[in-house]
Amino acid sequence: MIEPANRYENRYQLRNRYHFKGRLVMQTALHIGGGKVTLSSSDSPVVLTPERLPFIPGSSFKGALRSTIEKLVPSLPDSADLYSCGLIEQADNRQQANQQNGRKTCPTIRQRSIARERRNNPGRAEQIVEEEIENLCNTCQLFGSPFAASRINVNDLYMPDEEWSGIIQVRDGVAIDRDSERARDRLKYDFEVVPASATFNLEITLENATPQDLQILCVGLSEFVHGFGVVGGKRSRGLGACRLMNLQVSSLVLDGTTEEERNKHLRNFLLRGEFSSVEPGESFLERHISAIFQ
Q: What is the DSSP string of 239-262?
């Protein structure tokens, strides 16, 4: 039997699980390209399920959520001690300057220099990676990087059957000559869009979250709750605006509890899928975002 003091030495052991569930309602039309493996005659069809229903791939929403968080984290108070590398690789001279000033930089934006260091020190290759994992920024810890797996899982977003109107619109576009600022001859095209008001079910699962994970995730979800989030392509044309509605957060917290409480929560979850607590998304977001400014 594992002693309580040593229980969390295994980083893969389940310590907590959060389940976010809501409905993503499109405020404007949506375009997520589905390639040419479709029956559509459009130049740019939307992605469809085998039942020919539009959906939002989980990777698309996860990327939009990460991008939203990366824009907001640098504006948060310094006291929050939250950092996002933004996936912008730094030049060697910038990296050297940060090292001289004692600043940590995320290994995700130093992949070339880390690869060079591992080649020059083959006996320490694994140790170098382990040491660099400790320097991952908060967004890379949450969403994943080449050095660590993601803690967050976003399901594909499917339409409720009762919400689908069965209509996919086709819009026209034309290529623009950037020099003359005029339309190019014979370069007209079309693309499909899912109409505004389309609704998709959103489910996000977060495991072994730190307080910082919860804070920056809540910051990102807050943008979607208030209608400032966007998803999909052709956003500069006004597509992809959406609002997250009816958000609900279910929590299973196993760490920081007594042995009796932990066993009770885990037993109920394994037998009946019951979480420790369920609360409205608004109160959950408010509590964790407020903690950033304290």
A: TTEEEEEEEEEEEEE-TTS-HHHH
